Amino acid sequence: MAWYEGSMTNAAGQLINILSDKLPNNENWEIVDTPNTNEKVYGHKYNGNRDFCVYVKDNQADFATIEIWDDWDAESHVGVGNSLIYASGTYTLRIRRTVTQWGLRLTDNCFVFVNKANGWGYYI
After folding, report:
1. N or C, which terminus of the chain has less Cβ within 10 Å?
2. How much is the pTM?
3. Which of 122, 32, 9 is nearest to 79 (CA)?
4. Order of strands, edge to edge, in the sheet holding 100-106?
5. Dihedral (CA of 76, 34, 87, 21) sign
6. Is residue 47 predicted with pLDDT exceeding 90?
7. Given CA atoms 4, 72, 78, 32 in this order, what sign does their dihedral have?
8. What is the three-class DSSP state of 81?
9. How do 91-96 and 63-73 pair as beta strands?
10. What is the dihedral of CA 99, 105, 111, 112, to 10 degrees?
């Protein structure tokens, strides 16, 4: 397990800058694709096989939209297989960003992004 922390603003692109810098520090995480500006897809793999992908759309202020997919087609820039896109039927999954300090807990299996000022934690 690793712990990272720093400061951020609520501007678009802040979250993917943090995740792109820190997730590849763990051998089970990789950057799979960059579909559009301020969007990244991170793959999680175990024993060399990809388990799932996390699509982060960080292209607006205040929050990033999250999608979780079985896999990702980097040629077509689309998720493949089962997905988790909505919570409670129609609400998108989001990570809120404010001007604050952040923390990131990174393990072989998951990451937890923490907005330290508000005490919000997001388990992926």
Report:
1. N
2. 0.94
3. 32
4. 2-8, 100-106, 111-115, 120-123
5. positive
6. no
7. positive
8. strand
9. antiparallel
10. -50
